[in-house]
Amino acid sequence: MAYSMVDVSGMSGVSLNKLSQYAQTGLLNPAFGDLDEDIYYEKQELLRLQQILFCKEVGMEENEIGPMLRDDPQGVISIMKQHRIEILEKALRLQGLIQTLDKTISHLQGEQELDEHELYIGFVDKRRHHLLNESGSDHVVNNDVKRMQKEGVQKSNQEMKSKEDYLDSQAKIDQVHLDLQQAIEDGLEPGSAKVQRIIGRHLEWIKGYYTPTADIYRDLANLYVEHKNFRQMYDGYHPRLAEFLRDGMMIKAEHDLS
C-alpha cells in the first residue's frame, strides 16, 4: 500500500517540510510519484523513516544518519537492536532521575531526609560504571572489568559516596556473580530456592542505585544478555552466566516485584 506525503506526515509527526528536505538530500527518497507530481511512500520507505527517527532519538546528527541506515532486513534488525539498547539505557537513567526528583520533593515537603549524595543520582549516571562497566567505548574487556571491580575508579564525591563504598559495592556484586557461576556448575536451576536467594542479593544491590519496577528489572535482565559489554563481563565468569542471571531475574521480577 502506498501513502502520500500528507499521510506519512500525519502518521509519523514529521512535517511536510522535513519530508521534502529528506527527499532533496536523499536521506529518504519516496517510492514513486504520479502524473500530478504527488509523491508516495511504501513500506520500505516507512521503515527507513522509522530508522531515521530512532537515530535522532538517540542523539545522532542528521549528517551522521545516512551511513547508519540499512535496506537489507538483517541490517535493519541489527540497527533496531542497537537502538533498543541505547533507548533502554536512557530509560534506566530517566528512572533514576524521576526517583531523585520524587525524593527531593518529599524532602522539601518535610516528609523524609535526603542524603547529600542522593541529590545527584541520575545526573552523573553511576550505572555507566556500576551496571554497564564501561567508560563510553567498546574496548572494555573482561580483565579490565574485573580490575575495575577490584580496584575501583577514582571519581568525584558527587559520583560516589567514597572509594571505600565503591569497592565494597563491587565486591558484593562480584561475589553474586561468583555464586551464580558456582550454581551453574552445580547444575542448579534459575528458579531454585538457592539461586533465587542469590538473585535477591543482586536485586538489593540494584536498589542501592534506584528502585526498579518489575518491568525495569526485566528489561535490565534482557540488557545483560543483549549488550556486548555485559556479555564480555559475564562470559569472563561463565559462558552461560548472562542467560542464567536473566532467567533468574525474570523469576524474581514476577514473584517479588509484580
Concise synopsis of the structure shown:
The chain is mostly helical and 258 residues long.
What this model shows, in words?
The chain has helices at residues 5-12, 16-25, 43-57, 62-65, 73-108, 127-130, 142-151, 163-185, 193-207, 214-226, 228-235, 241-257, and strands spanning 3-4, 32-33, 39-41. The chain is an all-alpha fold. It folds into two domains: 3-62, Multidrug-efflux Transporter Regulator, Chain: A, Domain 2 (Orthogonal Bundle), CATH 1.10.1660.10; 122-257, no CATH class. Helix 7 packs across helix 11 (228-235), helix 9 (193-207) packs across helix 12 and helix 10 runs antiparallel to helix 12 (241-257).
So how many helices? Answer: 12
Going across the biggest sheet, name each strand in turn: 1-3-2
Major sheet description: 3 strands, antiparallel
Mean pLDDT, rounded to whole units?
A: 78
Poorly predicted ranges: 126-161
Rounded radius of gyration (Å): 23 Å
In whole angstroms, the N-to-C terminal distance is 41 Å
The helix fraction, in percent, is: 55-70%
Run of helices and strands:
EHHEEHHHHHHHHHH
Report the structural category.
Answer: mainly alpha
Q: What sort of overall outline do the alpha carbons produce when their principal axes are compared? A: globular
Number of strands: 3
In percent terms, what proportion of residues is strand?
under 5%
Domain module tally: 2
Please write out the topology.
Layout: E1 3-4, H1 5-12, H2 16-25, E2 32-33, E3 39-41, H3 43-57, H4 62-65, H5 73-108, H6 127-130, H7 142-151, H8 163-185, H9 193-207, H10 214-226, H11 228-235, H12 241-257
Antiparallel strand pairs: 1-3, 2-3
Helix pairs in contact: 3-5, 5-10, 7-8, 7-11, 8-9, 9-12, 10-11, 10-12
